[in-house]
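Trying the structure run again after the queue cleared.
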Amino acid sequence: MTGEPRIGDVFGEMLRDAYAVHVGAGRRPLAGGRLPRPVIEIIERDDGLVNGAPAAHYLEGPEHWQPYDHRAVDRVRGETLDVGVGGGRIARELQARGVPVTGLDTSPGALRVSRHRGVRDLVLGTVDEHAAGGCRYDTFLLLGNNLGLFEGRERAPRFLAALAAMARPGAQIVAQGTDPYGTTDPLHTGYHERNRRRGRLGGQLRLRLRYRELGTDWFDYLVCSADELAELVHGTPWRLVDVDDRDAPYYLATLRLAE
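Done. Tokens:
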């Protein structure tokens, strides 16, 4: 035992177990030897902060969604790429509405869960890898706070360029983000200041995920304000056309391909 996690498909293993608990069949983590234990996603930040969140929300149906998820899905038009499809909660609803949707994820286990739940079109890979395949879309979804996949100032232009390479004329990105700066918790405000001293955006997180004995490599994940998003989009093939902050600090951002 080294005390360090084994690198593996954390998200996929976690979703598999969460789905088993959800349907009451398959391998389920147990408490007390017989009762199903809630599956918890452990998020570890590079300053030592550890948080946990129930994984069941990755599988929730529309009746349990937040209002901004419903408004996001209502904005979808045409062929759609659900980036970070996870357990397929958004893709399943789009399929039910007759929307042609492809789910993209880097987790093989997550794709297996999505497929078992009925999502038909699934692709394993990053947006850069998928862009090389020549597919074209009208809408790109970055829901579940997946605006974080921008990572930071360096990665955001490349990420947006990969989406532009797959975009039909007039294509849109519908992304959900969170403004991180409303907090007064010194644990978070201090982290923001530490980031800025290092030349990073305040809400640029350095994380790894943990589940059971598994862990991911450390990675960047961006939590940014709408003003910071506008700065990141400037100079890319996209323009920010709308910010819906009715559920602040959560917001929906709509980007449109520049003509």
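The longest helix spans residues 10-23. Worth checking whether this holds up in the mutant runs.
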